[in-house]
Design a protein that fits this description.
alpha/beta, Isopropylmalate Dehydrogenase, 2 domains, twelve-stranded mixed β-sheet, 360 residues
Amino acid sequence: MENKQIKIGITHGDINGVGYEVILKTLADNRLTEFCTPIVYGSPKVAAYHRKVLDMPQVSMHQAASIGEARADQVNIIGCTDDEVQVQLGLASEEAGKAALQSLECAVADLKNEKIDVLVTAPINKNTIQSETFHFPGHTEYLEKSAGEDAKSLMILLKDELRVALVTGHIPLTQVPATITTEKITEKLRLFNRSLKEDFGIIRPRIAVLSLNPHAGDDGLIGQEEQNIILPAIKQAESKGALVFGPYPADGFFGSGAFESFDGVLAMYHDQGLAPFKTLAMDEGVNFTAGLPFVRTSPAHGSAYDIAGQNKASEASFRSAVYTAIDIYRNRKAYREANANPLRKQFHDRGNDNEKLDLS
């Protein structure tokens, strides 16, 4: 079966948090291996430690030395951390940060070499993971750099039909106004529109754009960004055929249910989009890095040190991240096949139709 060939790379994230808990709970469902091959990049020793602390049933994992030894129809784990790495549940440590980075680097290397099909990342501690090779505010920026100099990414938070994308991501709030430009918004709208088509199969996506200032600036009374920066970007996107609307005041947009009229919502900054999103979809929300040549998703929550090792973490968000990665991978493949050599396909189809006609 083609579906079984989908190889899902899973990074273990911060080993002192709830990463292994949500991974193990997700992989405990044997139905998952019926249509994909999960490969955890981490530590068999650490995985076993978490299972024991959580008092969970045994999750059968095939220990592979490399991706080449991974077995289809089974859960696999590739050891890529130091053998003596120590777990300190609920604590931030350099050792845990190093282990998280080792897992991520191994998985991304296989992803770029097309040895795995998609990547699902467990939460990291953005401080402890910092090193000479990781000097980014999060996964999104690291993966954008890993994809190449010309790669442009877009952070999309999603659950079912709710999809929220961001113009600016992990930057201080004081830097947001200066970072938002017409060119940047236009670029994000292009990426968003393309992703909604290719990754989610929406033929004519409708995108709502939020304002930066309260009340969308009140016609310039409390801010000029809507008139001078955001509206020109919307018009540029519209001139290229995109269905873009706004800017809408952000304060009541979600509470009023207005978001339900759109396929996607573009927020100006991190908390403007994520605060309402997590209110509506925290338990099953997914973070998707759009715009890159590969598929990466993650749960929409952090390492949750406060409940680490207590068997209280819900795996719903991580499980949704796994299934979302599979869906997006399939949608991209279907889109490419549908749009490959359209003239040749049209000619071929017409030829078949002609063969069916009785011209005698």
